[in-house]
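Sample pair:
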Amino acid sequence: MKKLLLTGGTGFIGRNILPRLEKYFEVCAPTRQELDLKDSDAVERYVKDGHFDIIMQGANPNPVKNAACDHADTMFEDSMRIFMNFYNVRQYCGKLFYFGSGAEYNKQMEIKEILEEDAQRSIPKDSYGLAKFYMNELARNSENVYNLRIFGCYGPYDHESKFLTHVIRCCLAGKDITMRQNCVFDYTQVFDLAEVINLMANTELKYHDYNVCTGKPISLLEIAEKIQKEMKANNRIIVENPGLNREYTGSNKRLLDEFGDSLHFTSIEDGIKIQIEHEKKVMQ
């Protein structure tokens, strides 16, 4: 069994994929107290001593979702420092994966079923997107670093501000469902990321960046209506601004061409059911 280091194991993605990765790997998931990811010497010692086949760098500084993180004005520096600490010891593992973001494509522009080849079309204005943009350039020019680029991701333990969580909690409380503006996204159920990591860890990969998305765009309004139907709720849906905001979807053709029938994504309907059951337990 291959040995895998997972960082960010207590975050939204990490805590969901950790038990699933343990089916395929011997997983080591140090806490913040056990390993300071911004300490380059500590990271180097940990990686050298661990003899990991795979590193899944899933930690992502986010002061909105995690009060223990630094302030938003240091997000670029913190993100790059953590990434570079692992990038600089990449030679001590077989493969180094990290989670990229559709924000690399510059969210001030329309991002519609976008291809990996368009990653350099525009430099992002925001700190988060800019950090991910630079990481991708380094990954593309590496021997063993791979960008798993996520667009929308949802599942249990998601932050209360996230759309699916917001809608479900509104339905449970009998409150109006509000959204600033309708928008088309491509949402991936978080459990599926563990399966993608397993496939990629055991495959000789052709590329160094992949859009990890379902290839099935859906609007926020459609999602809200599906949740209402599943929960048999009839609360109002209030869209504050008319029209559609800029789309945020990627093409997963590269992923499908490489993995074909081995790849499976949870349908939005099944993902909604999983999320509802989780939220019912949380709200009890």
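Residues 140 and 208 are 5 Å apart (CA to CA).
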